[in-house]
């Protein structure tokens, strides 16, 4: 029921913003075409920089918010390093009766895997508080009743996607098993692909190679009706705390380039996960939800397009100079150096 509502909301977008047509002439699932720029709901220009203010009175924001949704990479941690001040802030919010969720575009782990990461960093988080794009991909496949098709999924990605597919009983191939796969280029050389693959899911893959790209494009281009699903389109990501690394946008881009197909996007800024959270937890007012993230084009866009308050943290990929530049077309309601600035705000329970 929850995912039906999420999909129904996506079906209301204009045709220009829907995903393309599938091979064989069948209508593609009515998800937003991630490659098409989203217009603000009211048609007004997206940025009003006067309304983008550095948060100086945290209590004013925190007292007017019931639910905080945090991105993980660049907000809670960088690579495997916890960002300073995070434990105290989360404890303070919980004691104040705030509901907390973690919504991440990183698909390398399942919800179970993320519980392990939180625990390793000394944070106590329940599985129900975590929404990853690997979970969103599996939930989408469940919603469209992919299992009933008898088809398989080819995974370009890591174990997170596979573990979530296992939970819903959808067969899959690829993933880490193809990490060392090689091709032999000689006369008559070819990659044989499985004609029973009915969907290709592309998530972040540290071990992507030419074989995986070739296999994915063969499935999409040659298997009638094969779906192309992307967990996210993030340009860069945090693998370590030392620098930025190429994100899943690079993996998706490689396959877009050889298929000329736009993927079904299930991660941020798609509304899929927020619609699920709002319905499942009976949240009455989206205006009392605050999305806190380090990315303008995913986290803040996700919040703005879905009627949430937004707070950008500069502890991740976005600098203050980039935020305030004339070229930026996406503005949060507030921004902070890190969520450590929420601490000591005297939040009312």
TrEMBL record:
Sorted UniProt keywords: Hydrolase, Magnesium, Metal-binding, Signal
One Gene Ontology MF term: metal ion binding
Cofactors (names): Mg(2+)
Database matches in Pfam families: Hydrolase_6 (PF13344), Hydrolase_like (PF13242)
SUPFAM superfamilies tied to this protein: HAD-like
A cellular-component GO term for this protein: cytoplasm
Active site positions: 71 (nucleophile), 73 (proton donor)
Cleavable signal peptide: 1-18
Tagged with keyword Hydrolase: yes
Gene3D superfamilies: HAD superfamily/HAD-like
InterPro entries referenced in this protein's UniProt entry, alphabetically: HAD-like_sf, HAD-SF_hydro_IIA, HAD_sf, PGP_euk
Residues that, per the record, bind substrate: 268
Record-given protein name: Phosphoglycolate phosphatase
Annotated source species: Diacronema lutheri (Unicellular marine alga)
